[in-house]
Amino acid sequence: MTQFEYYSHNKMSQVKNDFTPALIKELKSFLVERVVDNMSTEDLVQYVTDDLDDMYKNMADEEFLNDAKNYWDDGFEDVIEEIREYADCDFKKDRRDDFLDSLSEGKDLDDYGSKVDALVDSMGVTDQDVYTKHRRKDLDLL
Q1: Is the separation of the CB atoms in 1 and 20 below 8 Å?
Q2: What is the chain's mean pLDDT, rounded?
Q3: What are the pLDDT digits (tens) for 92-116?
Q4: Nearest partner of 71 among 58, 84, 56, 88, judged by Cα
Q5: How far is CA 5 from each of CA 1, 8, 12, 17, rounded to the nearest angstrom?
Q6: Predicted TM-score of the model (pTM)
Q7: pLDDT (0 to 100) of residue 88
Q8: 2 and 18 in contact (C-beta within 8 Å)?
């Protein structure tokens, strides 16, 4: 049992509360769920990327290579050859940037401009159908 003291906004005072291991376990699970639910996709990708970077950096080479072999399975040798060619080339672009850019491709499909474009496209409107001579009666009276 863990005793924890905190300020209760419900009681407007300091409170000492006892937390059982089962309660702490459920609270941890709920907090993880809420934090992940409130993260943007970009933040979630960055968090997982950083976590995996740290895990692989601290892992023994043999253990890492075993994990990589298990992940790529039959394609492991092809990946090794691709990475070897990349490592030996004179010019390099950060592979991580390419990966993160690929995650954002098509991202603007949910923005307002894309929705308007999709609506206009669905209406069959083309540049050829546009009538360029527009007159307003109130301007003619000026």
Answers
A1: yes
A2: 81
A3: 666 666 666 666 655 554 555 666 6
A4: 56
A5: 13, 9, 13, 6
A6: 0.52
A7: 85
A8: yes
State both tokens at 58: 């601290």
Give the C-alpha separation, 5 to 15, whole Å.
6
Q: Which residue has the tokens 């360029």?
A: 132
CA atoms within 13 A on the CB side of 36: 8
Kindly give, in sequence order, each residue whose CB lies less than 8 Å from that of residue 1, ignoring residues fewer than 6 positions away: 18, 19, 20, 21
Q: Find where tokens 């209760």 sit.
A: 8
Cα–Cα dist 3/94, whole Å: 48
* Distance between CA atoms of residues 21 and 18, nearest Å: 10
At 29, list the tokens: 């699970």
What sections of 6-133 are H helices per DSSP? 21-37, 41-57, 61-72, 76-88, 95-104, 112-122
